[in-house]
Amino acid sequence: xxxxxxYARRGSSIGSRTFDxxxxxxxxxxxxxxxxxxxxxxLPRDSESLIDMIDGINAFIEDIDYYRLEEFEAxxxxxxxxxxxxxGVDCYLFVxxxxxxxxxxxxxxxxxxxxxxxxxxxxxxxxGDRKMDAPANIPADAVVVKxxxxxxxxxxxxxxxxxxxxxxxxxxxxxxxxxxxxPSKLTEALVDYVIRGLSLGKPGxxxxxxxxxxxxxxxxxxxxxxxxxxxxFCNYAYFIARFCNWMSLTPDQLVSRCFNQDGxxxxxxxxxxxxxxxxWLGELEAAGRAPQxxxxxxxxxxxFFEVNGVTLKVPKxxxxxxxxxxxxxxxxxxxxxxxxxxLRGKVIVSMLALGASG
Length: 358
Hints:
Helix content: 40-55%
Distance between the termini: 118 Å
Strand order of the largest sheet: 1-2-3-4
Number of helices: 14
Shape: flat
Order of helices and strands: HHHHHEEEEHHHHHHHHH
Largest sheet: 4 strands, antiparallel
């Protein structure tokens, strides 16, 4: 064993001199003939850990095959940074020596923001690579918080307000809507819930839903306390918008009318609002709306006020009772029944049809 180690030591010394000469002559193969930090990796002793490590190395080698690293200069990122810096461009170089899942939450969010922002500026696009004219009313300091198929959610760094920019091919300037809610993950989810719900058939109601805090309260109630049904929110928003149009008020104005200057319930104003709702439902009934439609309108408006702190006592709507009179089936109807009935059914139907009451 000692002899083997000695031969190995001598061979290593001879090989080292030979490799040095090869590098000197060819000017290449440094990574092959020279020891590097990777040559000193300590391999695990247990077989399972060793297999996992080898599998990871093999996967890394397979990934490397997709890139032509020979076409990249060494430290290309550093050169780009230096060129931009020398030209006076405002740029920053972020170097991280930890895996992404070990970074603090605020650092991960900053990296994610930077990636989205860079892609947006490099492509000159918003929302799915669609070219758009920059709306004049977007703050210059606004950054992209979330990108979706139909819209982008931006946040002004100055005042923290959220705004939605839609990707519209028809509009010369994409519409911009400010969100009447503080920035948060819940607000992002509610904005997406509202837009997806109203896209089912009432996209024109998106501004009234996002710009009124009372409507976002309704969306939060349906999203968190109910079934997150997109159709339910779409129907509720439709009836609330119709009632607002009939009253010539915004949703927030409807709610504020029910409170006094001290923020307390104004019972007189609430009673007047109850009468107004009842009168509006009467208008729908007089216009020939179905009882089911009127009940849906009542439920939408009542729920809207309740989630905004106003409990209303709206009069009940009369039930429409349909009366069906008993009659004997016609011969044609009997024939259809006999055609589809089995043998037992045919006997029963025939006895009932041909029998006489005593």
